[in-house]
Structures
1.
Amino acid sequence: MWKILGLSMLLALACRGLAGRCPQICVCDNIRRHVSCRRQNLTEVPVTIPQMTQRLDLQGNALKVIPPEAFLSLPYLTHLDLRHCQLERVEEGAFRGLGRLIYLNLASNHLSVLYQEALGGLGSLRQLVLENNQLEEIRPGAFSQLGSLGLLSLAHNSLVYLPDMTFQGLLQTRWLRLSHNALNVLAPEALAGLPGLRRLSLDHNELQTLPGEALSRPDGLVQLELGHNPLTYLGEEDGLALQALRDLALDHAALQDVGAGTFARCPHLRSLDLQSNQLGGLPPLEGVGQLRKLNLSGNPLMCDCAARPLWEWVARARVQTDGLCLEPRRLKGEALESLRAKDLYCQRQGDKQEEGEKVAPRPRAPEEDRATTPCPAACVCSPDSQHSSCENKGLRLIPSGFPNHTQLLDLRRNNFSSIPKGSFPGLAHLVSLHLQSCNITHLGPGALNGLGQLVYLYLSNNQLSGLSAAALQGTPQLRYLYLDRNHFTRLPRAALKVLPKLFSLHLEHNALQHLAMGDLAGAKGLHCLDVSGNNISHVGPGPALELEKLHLDRNQLQTVPTAALEALPALRELYLSGNPLQVLEDQAFRPVAASLQHLYLNGTRLQQISPGAFAGLGPGLRTLYLEKNQLQTLPPMDGFTRLELINLRENPFRCDCQLLPLHRWLAGLNLRVGATCEFPVNARGQKVKAATAAFEACPGWETKKGRRVPPSAQRKTRKAGGKRKQARPVKVGKARPRKRTSHI
Ligand SMILES: *[C@@H]1O[C@H](CO)[C@@H](O)[C@H](O)[C@H]1NC(C)=O
Ligand SMILES: *[C@@H]1O[C@H](CO)[C@@H](O)[C@H](O)[C@H]1NC(C)=O
Ligand SMILES: *[C@@H]1O[C@H](CO)[C@@H](O)[C@H](O)[C@H]1NC(C)=O
Ligand SMILES: *[C@@H]1O[C@H](CO)[C@@H](O)[C@H](O)[C@H]1NC(C)=O
Ligand SMILES: *[C@@H]1O[C@H](CO)[C@@H](O)[C@H](O)[C@H]1NC(C)=O
Ligand SMILES: *[C@@H]1O[C@H](CO)[C@@H](O)[C@H](O)[C@H]1NC(C)=O
Ligand SMILES: *[C@@H]1O[C@H](CO)[C@@H](O)[C@H](O)[C@H]1NC(C)=O
């Protein structure tokens, strides 16, 4: 029936001479009026595309430029796909004549500017996708003719700044995606003229403060995504005033403090996501009577008397809360919500904070201070956000005279060469100090004197080769220390001794050759150590640590440092990618087998994995990266029953009877793993999971559909040795392994 109808339609069109000839390199479905000319290296739009065409797919060509009126002969187009066309320019009037177009995809090109008239004539357009370009600039008026547009995606570009009225004319746009750019400033009227906007995605940008004024323009906003921005503090002054807002995501920012009144002008807020910030606590939030969900997971919550007001508020207001206590020790790992009021007490030293009345997380600047806030010349001090910045001002000396309530001081990209004693007077409330890329060779004794509240110290990308205890004296609260991209040849042992609270230490891209874990003796609370991209060939044993993440990737290790792992019983993530391991020995991960959840072994030149190499690792392991190795076979994997991701791409698997257990295991696993046969030749390129023909003749094959045969009955002694040829590079698609939905 369908066919006949289609055929007669086609005939009818052909009779009227409208079907046109199909360009040789395209595939035309003139019944549905679809034409596809994918990946043909076309440098211009073919001229003989049937005029009636509604959907045109030109993905993967080499058009480079769309000249004016390029589609004038295709007035019926509704869908146009121009992804991956190496586009550098869209000329003014390029789409003129496409008054019926409702979908235009320009993603994954090289566009860096969008000119004013480039999108003229697209009055019916409903979706415009500009993702994955290099847009740095949007000229005013670029979108002014898109009055029907519902979705505009500008994600994954290089936008830094949005000027006033950028989106003028987008009267019907409901969702604006600006995720994954480098936005750090939004002009106050940048988001004006978007009366229909309901959802705004600004996650993964560089916002250091909330652009409250700009964000309050689209007043119908219901959902706002601001996660993954380097925001450190939010308060009422930030001025978020969104009457209709229901969902607000502020996850994975760098929040250290949130003021009680921050959301007071968002009365309909129902869900607030604050997960993975650095909040030690939260005051009861004011004016959010409809809040139902508050996600605090992944924050270092301090569950003592100071947490009581929060606890009481969430209980009273029936806000469902996620969040685990990090401190005090007795409550570590407990859910705040599950505690009883009497659990939340403070050690009675004197009568300090005795009954939990004192909750103000940090003293605020008195209101009167504001008008007269001091600030050094060349710097900007914001009394509202309590941030002061002199970034990239060519300074040779550290200025003084910052407001005494400054919490974040940004001195990045100056030229200090050394930091002498007492460089930061009067900054007793400083929490975060940025000294990245300052050409610093030396931190003098007492350099940080007086910074008693400092939690974050950024010294990345300097010329440091050592750090003395005296240099860090006076910063007992320091938890995050960034020393990456310097010239360290060993761990700064002495300095670590005066940092009892250190939580995370970054030393990636230095010149370490030997990692002496013994140097961490003073850092009992260290949870994360990153020494990737050094030149480490040996890891020495050390004292027991609470380390949860160890980044040892991109070093020169030839064996798994099993002995050093003995001291790390809490290790959850171990990164060994990019080391020349070649072989995994039996019991390699035994010391951390009970805790390990994520294991990275990709790109480690592995040729062989001993049958007992993963001994002990089992249901606990959730991700396993083994791609880009030289593996022809794998040991039994049946013990891994909870994997959510396993990557086996780019290994030269030998699909013979020895691999039957793997084939079988994969057959029962609904994860995409990317394992491909390289040998024997007739199976080359087939997925191990699908290469049934390679295994049919194997002993034990028949039982496949019936009872499960214990893998040990199948397994033969492995003989994976022998000379290996260079693996043919296997073409890897973009598809990532998916989360499985059920277990075997
Ligand atoms: C496109 O060009 C590339 C590189 O010049 C070539 O390898 C490929 O075969 C060409 N594709 C077609 C369909 O002509
Ligand atoms: C909070 O975030 C965690 C971590 O992503 C998630 O597992 C949890 O389900 C979230 N809780 C709520 C209430 O949404
Ligand atoms: C800051 O200094 C002023 C005097 O200049 C003082 O009155 C005020 O209490 C100080 N504030 C803080 C938070 O220490
Ligand atoms: C940085 O400061 C040093 C002296 O401390 C000076 O020699 C050098 O020229 C300065 N570099 C720049 C780029 O100003
Ligand atoms: C770093 O400091 C040295 C001397 O201390 C100077 O020669 C060099 O120019 C400085 N580099 C930069 C980028 O400022
Ligand atoms: C790395 O260490 C090896 C010795 O283990 C040495 O030969 C090599 O020069 C080092 N490379 C760098 C970049 O330091
Ligand atoms: C290993 O895999 C991870 C996750 O895909 C990736 O981020 C990392 O760059 C890889 N490392 C190497 C050395 O290939």
Note: Residues 40-41 surround 2-acetamido-2-deoxy-beta-D-glucopyranose (ligand 1) (CB under 6 Å).
2.
Amino acid sequence: MAYRWKNDLSAPDATPEAVFMNRRQWMAGMAAGVALTGLSGRARAAGEDAGLEPNSWEDITTYNNYYEFGTGKDDPVKYADRLSIAPWEVQIDGLVDRPGAYAFKDIMARMTIEERIYRFRCVEAWSMVIPWNGFELADLLDMAGVQAGAKYVAFETVLDKDAMPGTRYPVLDWPYVEGLRLDEAMHPLTIMATGIYGRDIPKQNGAPLRLVVPWKYGFKSIKSVVRITLTDSEPPTSWNKANPREYGFYSNVNPEVDHPRWSQATERRVGGGIFSPRIETPMFNGYGEDVAGLYDGMDLTRFF
Ligand SMILES: Nc1nc2c(c(=O)[nH]1)N[C@H]1C(S)=C(S)[C@@H](COP(=O)(O)O)O[C@H]1N2
Ligand SMILES: [Mo]
């Protein structure tokens, strides 16, 4: 299957970046002609794309949005350590055959962890490239058994008021909630991330597992998920509830639909330095070839 390349980042004491570079050399070797079943030409090319040069561990783990810990980009790294993540359970319920509280460690034992190097585009018009480790959300949903009537998937973040100083303020209606249409959730690009650079995902990035939907604005990629509910109607989402004029349910990256207060045509790549030129934002964040078909016939200005 396309996109599926196995995670071989297992060397425990190498620095993440060093392990990662070895991996890239290995990928380059593959591109030079060694056959590997299942790795599509497109995925291979993407690994060598200059626009896919990953951000540093430092950038990815110190410049964060996680409003439960505060609205500053450095609040999550300051406070997220207060959150207890072990043991962790994910409640999977609604229109599924096997509802229940699934222990994170049992989920991990059953999922195939892969590496996905994805562009990540925040609605605030900054971006990064992040080498995630994780598994396809479709595999988790299959484990629970999606029933025929399910059309949407709702997600919820943990709410621990003692550990999360930001939740004392009604910036958003806590807990943070998000949602996807079922076909978006089942798409092979949609993952639950559990790692970055081969290490466990840090708390400020949404430990122990968070959604990543690379063709949508970053706020759809909900962190520290404790509940996944299969439903037959479009679930409420936090930013849409807070400001429906500015944040739609779909929130696909779209350079032609500006935010009411700023342009979405270009973005600032984090880590490039303040004088680095802005780069053009591609439709669907560059994943249109894979996902545009999900929206055939839809007016993406209306369903923004
Ligand atoms: N629970 C929760 N999830 C969240 C957020 C949040 O504030 N709370 N912020 C979102 C936004 S706006 C972005 S851009 C990404 C940021 O992910 P990162 O900090 O790992 O880069 O997380 C998203 N998921
Ligand atoms: Mo964001």
Note: The domain at 17-295 is CATH 3.90.420.10 (Sulfite Oxidase; Chain A, domain 2).
3.
Amino acid sequence: MIDDSKNTVSSPSGDPWLLTPGPLTTSLSVKQAMLHDYGSRDASFIDLNARILERLVAIIHGEGSYVSVPLQGSGTFAVEAMIGNFVPADGKLLILINGAYGQRIAKICDYYRRSYRVQESAEDVPVDCAQLDATLGADHDISHVVVVHCETTSGILNPIAEVAQVAARHARSLLIDSMSAFGALPLDAREIEFDAVVASSNKCLEGAPGMGFCVARESALVAAEGNSPSLVLDLYDQWRALQRNRQWRFTPPTHVLLAFDQALNEFEAEGGVAGRGRRYRENCDLLIDGMRALGFKTLLPDELQAPIIITFHMPTNPLFDFAAFYDGLKERGYVIYPGKLTVADSFRMGCIGRLHRRQIQGALDAVAGTLSQFGIERIES
Ligand SMILES: *Cc1c(COP(=O)(O)O)cnc(C)c1O
């Protein structure tokens, strides 16, 4: 296996490093794992599927009571599937919103004509559990609550353990969008009560993009039979098909699965959630310290910052031009992401994917180099 953490200028494939919320940089060995054409009925492919699904359950320590169901598509397909399967037509969903991904869940409910209520806070404010408690106490129609683990819009960490406690106290079912946190931030089903969580192959698990998955409490999935308004997103049906003949219902993304199996090997070799979370935390701290040293300011205070993606205020210096800044970094081998926020003009830099200290340091050097090209030595804003 090539140790791609040693590269600074570009990844082993010659591509720029992706400091984005996804798709993300993958290791060379994950990409190489895709150099095969498997038939969907191939015995080794079937074994590989089973191995992946088992390992996803193990990541949340859900052995015995949780099952995992894979689904073709990007992460949003899995979010939509979770809403459509678990919230029945006569249910009501409380959506805890503090960013674009929470908003998207409300849009899904509009499409599905599911009744819902929102509890919204600004993008730099975590979900308010006291307000949640009051809402659940007052509105007895609410059957389900959904929360976004790390709101990738800003990079804020939501207090899912407390959210889960409140939901459990009121006997409501909790659904979690942990897309940008699963595999890097702890989510332990033995300690946190929830019915379903969704994530995808290409965020913190560092596989290729193209599939999502839901890890669900088996009893909740059984109870969800017949709820899905969509055939392709019917998690219950997909799960039953896999149980029946170990096959996906429709053409499986074989290459994505090959990459995902290898990505999970590398995830385990790194020490699972603890190891991966540690590397991301180190990346995040290094990036924030380095950017602050150059004068940039983070949107979030450190205690609300998840080690996933960091939002920086857009500098007000007239010499600073974001489009030119983006291009300057890209030319130096690093891709960042514009902000998507309403609370502040900003841009974002991710610290997840196959990135190590060297690439973060390289990105900081690229930022300093690009600024000096603008004639800026230090951002003062
Ligand atoms: C990435 C992400 C999604 C899914 O996005 P896709 O572009 O559909 O893969 C959903 N929720 C959160 C919190 C995310 O970070």
Note: The longest strand covers residues 66-72.
4.
Amino acid sequence: MTGGFVFSEKPIQIESGEGAYLYGEDGTEYLDFGASYAVASLGHSHPAVTEAIQEQAAKLTYVQASYPVDVRTELYEKLATLAPGDADNVWLCNSGTEANEAAMKFARSATGRSKIVATKRGFHGRTLGALAMTWKDKYKEPFEPLAGGVEFVPYGDEEALADAVDEETAALFLEPIQGEGGIHPASAEYLRHAREVTEEAGAALVFDEIQTGVGRTGDLWACEGVGVEPDILTSAKGIANGLPLGTTLVKDWIAEDPGDHGSTFSGGPVVCAAANATLDTVVEEDVPGHAAAVGEYLRSELEAAVDEHDLPVREVRGVGLMIGIQVKRGANRVLKNLALSEQILALPAGRTVVRLLPPLVIDERHADQFVDSLVEVLQ
Ligand SMILES: *Cc1c(COP(=O)(O)O)cnc(C)c1O
């Protein structure tokens, strides 16, 4: 019998990584413009994170979450300080989907209601609760029945939101910028409206910042950029720069009655050490500010290249270093050519969007390298 992964792998074998680059077994250098699903936010194997992991692993690799340890307490305090508004009560878990499961459970428990409102094209994860709030049928159909009581509204439609969020609603789940659904930023007015209708109905406003968070959009959290405070904020992906961590930050009124929830690996010391090092670096080096500046440069260079070379691109959109390039023909062919001919790795978002989520530490040279390669591939 030959062992293998259930799902297909790409024909590129990676052995090591440093900064914005991954290296193949044969020494080939790949520019990782997906940051491996936005996880390598500070670049691959960032030295400060590696050192924190090594030190903590040698000291204490794991202890059950009911015994306080300094490294976890430090992370609780850091997240409370960095949380938007007063969503400063912290739940730690091991992935994005689990952070959303917790958000769903906490909101139901705190409100005593069950209905959830989510958005068309939205993505919240693959476990049966988060999957129920995810839009795409392809992800859901083989696994039904999912958690019930989810109503979907078109993203960006204020009226539909006002109609759907009612006295039976426990929570409204929103990505401030839809990621997997094709890089669609919400307007500030829409997010403000979401704040108003949830407040009026007594429902929790949940921002899923699993992809947008930790500096990617030019602010630490995308909701800060538009000045809207959620009741619950979920994060994961880049928050521990490669180790599995999900966080659910909640306001007091949710934390007062969260029900009973738990996870054996919640807040393991090594993961907490990696997150502390990541967050310290993000804050001390103003990584969000850097992402805003380089993102602006990359977007304008992309737009200029599309015009100059008359490239088959319908639109370039996004905020900070979360950028979607909507191409006229299939995105997968573009991605394959970028990888195999130009040694640049990026991600799809649906059939026609090339999604860029590069490490937040890239500079203008990396941006130029990407734009030149894209021109090569699309011409
Ligand atoms: C990736 C993602 C998730 C799921 O996170 P996992 O760690 O893969 O479970 C949820 N929501 C958004 C917006 C995401 O981008």
Note: The mean pLDDT is 96.
